[in-house]
Design brief:
single chain, alpha/beta
């Protein structure tokens, strides 16, 4: 019989609706990050760097690109005969077809997969955070404390604590109480959505709570274990961890990569971040090009000027174009004499000549101010922007647009242009 000490279950089915048009055609964990990576590369790399060689990736929303990216797990050394990486979409059972309705329901529906490895411990991860963490150290803490459930926590500013599940612990880090998004938090230890369960504890909790609607770890499984008296402990993590769930946090996390001394270092020899790389020619910089404090992906041709930006692979930036404080994803083509300020441009976008993005005063976005804010211009994938268009701040454009879509070649701050069929 196969026996694995610890297997990982990676929740990667989320839509990531607060990323707006960036996730309308792709699951959040498959969104590009840091030039050549995708968000899911970080937890997958953490697994293999921590010696966890069996990972179930639970997909649901728009999984195609994620599935293609993961493949059989070769870049992460997860192409194993026993274990390795398995993509686990919801599937039709003999009764009724059932989508994953909550984080714990997704795990419950894969009990058979986990049972097959007869694990001692199960590590539950989210597919949409940027961080480096040695899960082996967390497992050692779990064993030495005698925990049945260990929850990774990190200190957050107390004024932000009401956005998280908050843990209250005693001097030994045993969790005495926890509150899901409390109005008046009594602690600043926030759950990171990373859990280690003893397999027996997890299995029993999932089977007992199976009928709860939208079965969730924070709302159901952990309270159940706590009420039963199972020892729950908080493992405090002090490294870099970023939830890139909003456009502004996604933009910030990319910009932090290009700080002079980056808080999150992609270049560490002993903790590599692995990804699936296309075979690309080297970057090309013309004699007139200028690049300062930026990440430039392979196969990218730069004829213009790039400052403080993260540029993906296979991008072209035309002559006389200036790109500042922006994120340009793979295979996007930008014409000549353009200006881009604080723009997030998704994959396979075509921007004509003399296009200006991020110009003028800020105004709140007219359709989704909670998504499109902080002065960012967001362009959805495969969009086309014709020559000579000027676009304001807090704007979103998605689709193949033409001159007719822009009055006097101008698109004011706070406006949204999402062509039919692109929702």
């Amino acid at each position: 019989m196969i026996k694995k000490e610890m297997i990982a279950m990676l929740l990667a089915g989320g839509q990531g609706s607060r990323l707006g048009v960036l996730t309308s055609k792709v699951a959040k964990p498959a969104v590009a990050f840091g030039g050549k990576y995708r968000i899911i590369d970080f937890p997958l790399s953490n697994c293999i760097n921590s010696g966890v060689d069996t990972v179930g990736v639970l997909t649901q929303y728009q999984p195609l690109r994620l599935n293609t990216h993961i493949g059989i797990g070769i870049p992460w050394d997860l192409d194993r005969n026993i274990g390795g990486v398995s993509v686990l979409p919801p599937y039709e059972k003999s009764g009724e077809s059932e989508w994953y309705t909550g984080t714990a329901n997704a795990i419950y529906q894969n009990l058979d997969y986990m049972e097959g490895f007869n694990p001692d411990y199960v590590l539950i991860l989210s597919g949409d955070h940027i961080y480096k963490m040695d899960y082996e150290v967390m497992l050692d803490f779990h064993k030495s404390s005698g925990a049945e459930v260990t929850i990774a926590v990190m200190p957050v500013p107390i004024e932000e604590a009401s956005r998280f599940g908050i843990m209250i612990t005693d001097e030994n880090k045993r969790i005495t109480e926890f509150e899901e998004k409390p109005e008046h938090p009594r602690s600043n230890l926030a759950s990171m959505g990373i859990y280690i369960f003893n397999w027996k504890t997890l299995k029993e909790a999932l089977i007992t709570m199976a009928n709860q609607p939208a079965l969730d770890f924070g709302k159901h499984v952990i309270p159940y274990c706590h009420d039963k008296g199972a020892p729950l402990y908080a493992y405090e993590f002090t490294g870099y961890w970023k939830d890139v769930g909003t456009l502004s946090s996604y933009w910030e996390a990319n910009m932090e990569l290009i700080d002079i001394v980056p808080e999150f270092n992609l270049y560490e020899e002993y903790w590599k971040i692995y990804t699936r790389s296309e075979i690309q020619p080297p970057q090309y910089f013309s004699g007139d090009s200028v690049v300062e404090r930026s990440i430039i992906g392979e196969g990218t041709d730069i004829y213009g000027k790039v400052y403080n930006s993260v540029i993906g692979c296979g991008v072209t930036i035309g002559k006389g174009t200036v790109v500042r404080d922006s994120i340009i994803m793979n295979q996007t083509q930008i014409g000549e004499s353009c200006e881009l300020y604080k723009a997030i441009v998704a994959e396979n976008v075509t921007i004509g000549n003399r296009v200006r993005l991020g110009i003028g005063e800020e105004a709140p976005n007219d359709t989704a101010p909670h998504i499109y804010n902080h002065g960012i211009v967001t362009i959805g994938e495969k969009s086309i922007i014709p020559d000579g268009i000027t676009v304001g701040k807090n704007t979103v454009i998605f689709g193949e647009t033409t001159d007719k879509d822009y009055e006097n070649s101008y698109f004011a701050s706070g406006k949204s242009l999402i062509k039919a069929g692109e929702q």
